[in-house]
Amino acid sequence: LWLIARRDAAAAVAPAIGELIDTGLVMLQDAVYSTHPLSNERIQVWMAAHLADTGGLTPSEIDRGAGAAFAERFAAMRGSVTAELAIPLGRRALRLLARGQLWEFVGSLVNRVTAEAYGPVAAALISDLSAIVQDAPPPARWRARAGLAIALCNANRLDEALAAFEQADQEARAQHADDQLHDDLRHNWASALGRTGKLAEARALYREVASAARARGHVGWARLTELEGARLEAEIDAAAALPAIEGVVSEFRSTPGSSSDVDGVPAAVFATVLNVYAQVLVKLERWSDALAVIEEELEVSRRGQLAMSRIAAVELNRAIPLAE
Question: Which of 144, 108, 104 is CA-nearest to residue 126?
Answer without folding.
Answer: 144
